[in-house]
Amino acid sequence: TDLVIKSRDDIEKAKFGYTTGLNVTFHFSDLLSFETGVQYSNKGYKTKEQDLIYFPSNPSLPNKVMTNYSYQYIGIPLKAKFTFGKGKTRFISSAGFMTNFLINVKQTSNYKYQDGKTEKKSQSSTSGFNKIDISPMASIGIDYKLTDKIHLSAEPTFRFGLNKTKDAPVKEKLWNAGLALSISYSLK
Fold this sequence. Notes:
It is built from one helix and ten strands. Strands 1, 2, 3, 4, 5, 6, 7, 8, 9 and 10 form a ten-stranded antiparallel sheet that branches. The chain has one helix at 2-11, and strands spanning 12-14, 18-27, 32-47, 50-51, 64-84, 89-112, 118-125, 132-145, 150-160, 175-185. Helices cover 5% and strands 64% of the residues. By secondary structure, it is mostly beta strands.
């Protein structure tokens, strides 16, 4: 398994992913609030372009491939938010976890041929993959008050999957880092 891990570490790299959703925040005081909601996430990784070598050589087969692995989840965040400061601009930090429910795993391979032709092949499945992932998350950022009811916030965020994506000798856990941008509307 050490050889497989090294091989994967050499060819895999981060891919662009995203999370979008609708959250509800319950304010207990000016300092403390609690947030939950429902979110859709697309995360995963991709491979560097790899050479395909055949013996004997066959120019009718692709000679390069790059593969993208996309894990799609519906998630429920539960987090505590802390707000510091007065005025229009305030500092916020949050900590909690996201419970993710797997809805699809899609593998898309992009093949290149010697003559310049390209071909894309995709397959989707959840068979053999763990259906639930728990991701602790933490963030710190800024909240800006546009009006009494509308706030904008930006929070660099980090999440790490505690569960393996599937039961296999090589452990694969998903993590992501990004920027959470939010528009909040107060109902009171």
